[in-house]
Amino acid sequence: MKKHIPNTITCLNLISGCIATYWAFCGVWHIALLFIVIGAVFDFFDGMSARLLGVSSPIGKELDSLADCITFGFAPSAILFDFLKGGIEYLPWHYLPYAAFVMAAFSALRLAKFNLDERQAMGFIGLPTPANALFWASLIVGAGEELMAVPALFWAVFAGMFVSCYLLVSEIPMFALKFKTWAWKGNDVKYVFLITCVPILLLMGISGLAAIIAWYVILSVFTNMQKKK
Q1: What is the pLDDT of residues 62-108, one digit of tens each?
Q2: Helix, strand, coil percentages for the chain (3-state, nearest 5)
Q3: Which residues sit opposite 173 in a β-bridge?
Q4: Residues 144, 142: Cα–Cα separation, whole Å
Q5: How far apart are CA 104 and CA 106, in angstroms?
Q6: Cα–Cα distance between 164 and 170 in angstroms, integer?
Q7: Cα separation of 94 and 15, whole Å?
Q8: Under 8 Å between Cβ of 38 and 16
Q9: What is the pTM of this model?
Q10: What is the Cα gyration radius of the chain?
Q11: I need a labelling partner for 223 at 20 to 30 A (CA). Which of 11, 76, 122, 214 fits?
Q12: Angle 213-217-218 from CA coordinates, rounded to 5°
C-alpha cells in the first residue's frame, strides 16, 4: 500500500495543475496561482514521502516530470496567454499570444534535462520550473492590470517570457535550499536569501513572490561569478 502513496501525491500535483490551467483560461488568475502553489506543495511532499518510505521508483520519477510539466509548464503559460490576449490592441498580429506556450515547451525540455543531469543533487543548473511558474503567476496576479495599462511594460512582459525560457535551459548554476548542516559557513547565501524574503513579501504582497524569484536568480548569478574569481 505504501508504495502507492508518493505516486498518489504526484497525481494530486498533476490534478492541481489541470485545475490551475482551467482557471487561467477563464481569466481568474488568482485561483490559478493558488492551485500552482498547491501543486508545488504536493511536488515537495511526493519526493520526500518516497525517500522516507523507501519506495522511490523509475515510474515515480517519470510521473513527477509529467505532473510538473502541467503544473509548472502549461499552467503558467496559460496565465501568460490569457494576459497577452487581454492586451491584443498592442499586438501587430492577433496570434502572438500563442507564443506564451513556447514557455511550456522549454519547461518540458528543462524537466527532461533535469532527469538526465547528475550534477543537480545539491543545486540546480538553470532555473527550476516551479520557480519560473511562481514568478509568472504571481507577477500577473499581483501586477497584471498595471502591466497591461502601459504598452512598454506589456512588451517587457512579452520579452521577459523569452528570457525565462533561456534561463530554464541555461547552464547557470543556481543554489537549492538544501542544508547538509545548519552552520552559517557554507550556507550564508541560503540564509541571506531566506532572511530577505520576509520583508519583500511584507512590502510587496503577492507580487513579492515574483520579486523573490528574481532575487533568487540574481543572487545565484552573483554567487557563481564570485566563485569563478
Answers
A1: 899 999 999 999 999 999 999 999 887 877 778 899 999 999 999 99
A2: 80, 5, 20
A3: 125
A4: 6
A5: 5
A6: 10
A7: 31
A8: yes
A9: 0.92
A10: 18
A11: 76
A12: 115
